[in-house]
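Table S2 (continued). Query chain:
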Amino acid sequence: MAPLFVNAARHVTVWTFLYPLTIASLSLAVEDYNIPNFSVTDLRAGRRVDDLSSVLGSTGLIAITGLGVDFSKIRKTALESLCSCSESSEFLVMDGSDRTVLNDRLTTRTTLATATMSNIPLPLPVDQLTRHCGLEATEAMNALRDHVALASSGFVSALDRMIDGAASSSESQVLLRDTQGGMFTSISSIVDVSSNLEHFHVYSKEDTNGGQHDDLQSIDSSLDTHTDAGLFLSFVPARSCVNEANEEENSSFFVSVSGEIRRAVFPPGSVAIMLGVGAEHWLKVPEYLSLKATRHAVKMRVGEARAWYGMMNLVPENAIVHDSPVHTFADMRANMVMTGSNIQNRRYSDSTASSNRYISIGCGSSSSSEAHHSISSSITSPPKRVRLQMVPDSSYCNNSTNFYCWMSCLAIPDYENAEEFIKEGKSLYCLQPAVLASSGNDVKEAVEPCNDEQTGRPGGAMNSNCMGTWATTDHRVSAQKVEFNATNTGSADQPYCYGATSMFMEGFQWQGSTCVVYLFPAWTLTTHAAFVGACFGTFFFGFALEAVIKGRRSVAVMVQGKIKRLAVSTLFYGLQLTMGYMLMLVVMTYSVPLFLCIILGLMTGHFMFNINTKNLVVAEGSTPCCQNDLGKKKTISSCDDMEESLELDIVEEESSLKSCFGGS
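Corresponding output:
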C-alpha cells in the first residue's frame, strides 16, 4: 500500500504546482458564452417557456432584460459610488460592512450587507451611507435593490408556471417540506417566508509584483469553480472600478458549459439569475423538469477591482434539505466548515473561504456537505416576520411574542413551548447557530458575534446569521427575557405587529408589520383592539378640536373687558394649537386608518358645531393647529356698553359677530 500513497502524493504535488498555470492558460484561451436573455415581460406573460426550461436544465444561468430605461444608469451610479467610497477606512465603520481576504491571499472582498426577510427589505444604514458615499449613491443602491427584486419576482413567477405545467396531475406538486409539517407547493411560497441575503461587494486583487507580470501571471482564480447553496442568486454583472472606459466588460465571470469553462458575456442592462444547489437537489420538482445548479468561477487580473451586487434567495431554516437522515437548512449551515481566526467576528457571512470546498452560500464564502460537525441539540427556529425599521434596544420589543436580535424585533421561536423549555433548563439567546455547533455548544462563544461591538448589548449586531435559539442556560451570558402567560402558553397565533415606530418610513400604509407608537411610548398599539381603540379616540379627538375652535370664536366675545377677552382667547388658542399639533403628529405616523379618522372627526365636528350658524362663510387655514383668517380682519365690538373695538386673530362668521349676546 505504501507505493500507492507515494504515487498519490506525487500526483497531488504535481497538480498543486500545475494548477495555477492551468487556470491561467484556460483564462486566456476560453471562448465567450453569451448568456441567454429573457425580458421580464416575457417571463411574466409565460412566453418562451421551452427556451427557459432548456437553459435552466443545462447551465442554470439566464439574464433578464427590459427593466426600464434608467436601470443602466442606476447600476452605473450605485457600483461606481461603491468603488470609490469602499476604499475609505470609514466605510468599515458602517453597520453591515466587512472586509475579508479570500483564499488566493491576493483578493480582498469589501462588503456592505443587508437582507430581505419574509419579503420585507431591511434598510441599508442610510445615514452612515449618505455621510460616507453621498445621497446619490444611497438612492442608487436602494433603487438597484428594487430593480433586482423586480427581476427576481418575474423569474419566480415563470418558474412556478413551468413547475405547474410539468406536473403530471391536477394536484399541486409539493416542492419542499419543513419540520413543522408545512408543505411548499410553489417557489413563491418558499421565497416569501425565507431570509434572503443581499451583498454589495467590491473585489480588489492586489498587485504584488509592482505591475511587472506576464499574461500567465496576470489572470488567476479569485474564486475557484463552485456552486452556490440556496435556490438561486440574483445579481448584476460586475463593473470594473479601474477600467471605466469599458463599463460593460464581463471578463471576470466564468461559467461551466457542457463541462467547459467559458467566459460569460451578459447583455447590457440585465440582471443575472443563477440557480443554486437548492434548486437542483432540495426541490422535488416534476420528473420531466430539470434544474441545474450553475458551476462558475471568478477570475481577475492582478491590480484590478470590481463592484458587484447580488441577492441570494434561500429556503426557510427549518426546511428539510435531506430526507434520510433528516437534515434541515439550519443543520447544513451549522455543519459548515468553520475555519479562520476571525470567523466569530464576521458580519453577514456564513463561513470563511476554503479552497477544497465546492458549495458556498454566496460567492466568496464556502461550505461543504462533506463536513461532519456534531449537530447541536438546541432548538432553533427562523424569524417569520420582522419590522421594517431597526430598533435601538430591547425596550422597543414586547418580549412576549418578539425579542431583540439583529437590531430588530424578531419572533420568539416556538413560543408556545416557552414554559416547557424554561423548565428544562433552557434559555432564549440571540446567537449564531453555526458557531454554537462548531464550538461544542458553547453559548458564550455563539452569542458574541451577535452582540453590539461597541456596547456589548445582546442582539445589537447587524448579523444575518443571528437568530433566536433555545439553548441550555449559560449563566455567564445574559439570556433574553421572555414574558409569557402561564395559563395561555399554547397559542401559536401570529403576533399582530412587531417592535415600535412613530413613522412608517415607506409612506402611507393600511397596516404595517411594525407597531405604531401613538404619541407616547407607553401608548404603543401592539394589538388589534388597541389599534381600533386608537382609531375611535382619534376620531373624537378631531371632533373635540372643532369644539375648541368653535368655543374660541364664541366664548371670547362674551367676556367683558379687552384684557380678559384676550386672555380667554389666548387660553383657547393654546389649547387649539396643542390639540392641532398632536393630531399632526398622528398624521405623521403615515397610518391610513388613523389619518382617515382625523379627517372624519374634523369634518363631523365642523358640521355639528356650525349647523345652526346662519350665512356660514368660513375662510380658514388648512391645518387645525394653525387656524387663521384668510380674508380681511373683522372688527368685533361688544353689544352693550363696549365702545372700543378689538381686532382678534380668530376666524369669525359675520352672522356670529352681528348676533353676539342675542343681537340680530
